[in-house]
Amino acid sequence: MMLFYRNFSHTLWLLATHVLLLCLLSISAYAGDISQQRWQFETAYQALKANNLGTFFEVSESLRDYPLYYFLRYSYLKSRLTKVDATEIETFLKEYGQTAFGEMLRQDWLKELARQGDWSNFVQWYTPQKALTLRCQYVEARMQTGQSVPEVLQEAKELWLSPKSQPDACNGAFSYLYSSALMNSDLVWERVRLAMRKDQVSLAGSLAKRLSLEDQAWIGRWQLMHKKPEQELVDFIAQDSQIVREIIIHGIKQLADNQFDLASNYWTTYQSRYAFTPQQIGETQRDLALACAKQEHPDALKWLKAINKSYLTEDSSAQRILFALKKQEWSAVADFTNDLPEESKKLPQWRYWQGRAFEQTGKVALAQSIYKELANERDYYAFLAADRIGAGYQMQNKPTVFTSADEAQLLKNLSIKAALEFYQTGMTSNGRQEWQHGVKQLPPAQQMSAAVLANRWGWYDRAITTAAKANAYDDLEVRFPLPYRENLTMGASSQAIDVAWVYGIVRQESIFMSDARSQSGALGLMQLMPATARGLSKKVGVKISSNSDIQDIDTNITLGTAYLRQMLDKFDGNYMLATAAYNAGPGRAQRWAEENSCVPADIWVEMIPFDETRTYVRRVLFFTSVYEARLGQQPRPLRLALTPDSSCPIEIARSNSSAYPN
Length: 662
What we know:
This protein is mainly alpha-helical. The protein has 40 helices and no strands. Among the domains are: 228-311; 404-473, Methyltransferase, Methionine Synthase (B12-binding Domains), Chain A, domain 1; 485-659, Lysozyme, CATH 1.10.530.10.
């Protein structure tokens, strides 16, 4: 009896399967209907996951004209690289290799070919890659197949000449380099120097094994100097040579990080003993000056002024200006901004600070001229300049011309077309991958068209990032969209905070991705940490059972705006400090406010020690002003404010009284 029921059940299952297939085949007549195709796609995809290959093949074959057909083929082949015939993979790569998932399959296929040692096919199917492993294996593949040996050896040299250890997969390529005429002691020393400059001491030791015993001894002394500079510099004695001078300079720079005075004294001593080159002197004195400034040494400004301009870098130039700003040495700010390269002088940041320096040193006409010119632009520093002269902000919105022909041209690109379909079917992560891949292949003008198209679809994060990639910043409807307007307005109103500020926060935090999840675990539109969200939920009466609840749009906005209100209250209505606190935490914002309480608010922002938070505050305050305009409000002056502490010197408070906005 049991056998009868088992056979009967099996017969029913077969009958049901055939009925399902008949239904699916009849549906194929309506394949032009996108909703039917989406249903079929989901059916085929689930069948593949269940390893029901019969259904998968039957259904997927009817989807050849569907934008995501190639993804079904990719999903099938990906887990069967060693089982299917190579021609299936090669056929797929010929037809779909230009897509993101085609490229992923290519990478997996190349790894498999390398594992098999099939170098001929590796060369045939290789396309330029970023992954070091594949780049090294491509060198090895061409060496194995005897292709363009001199050129390949040069590529191997470029891969080898790195300050960091390379993957084991590069060993094959490097073995050819080691046995070639390109490899010599000079090349090894070049990499040793790269490694030591990046503090890769162990790598330098490994490389030393390829040198003479004498050279190995020098590298050993260099390693000791790196680890114990104070001890080694006491009685370092050696005949003058290039390597000796490099070791001494390395030790002095290491020591200067914590003990500037001692390092400076040693530098004076050793300059009298060794013939350092002008470049070595210029670069060392520059680095000593920066270490001096970092330690807030009383002589820091003198050292910074003494830097030879020929050895200023972009970073050291910025550090000089920022130190002078912190000390409010306005004459030095004017001099340091004037020393910038011509291209750097054009940047809004340095134009603004040059104007501020002129204003503070009595050159009001020059300052006004800079402010007026800068205020015609749309930028954080341009808005600061406008505030200095009481001018309105210039939004300069220039909508992008986008025609149906532009759209049709874009949708000829399978990556763009597939990305849209991924987005429409809820496979957003896949869509973002395909979109980014497709956009990279477009010229800038088409990239901006793609940004407009994404905006029309309501795919705001792709629209914003694509416009930035195209270096197209003037279409404010694309760059500063207004999604979730009702939700955000209600959230802001419930906490009595400015909705434009909330928009600025969301724009910076998640670029309107409701499913955003940061590496640190922050979730949703307003990027709330789970612990913070749970703590807030009890106060505002919102139930949270799981992290997915935190990503719910209304819940996320309710909790995020409540946290903004909390930060605003903590900092007595100061938007600048509340913004810094939202990013870095209230404890840090409070400490920074106390540490730099005697500087104007615009300087305070420049002094934020975290690069991320400094950029965050500037952007959010700038975005807030743009969103005021987008919402039809009259933009207020940038919300920078910092009341001088009572302990600040009277002369500083007086000299900067005009720098504190009301």
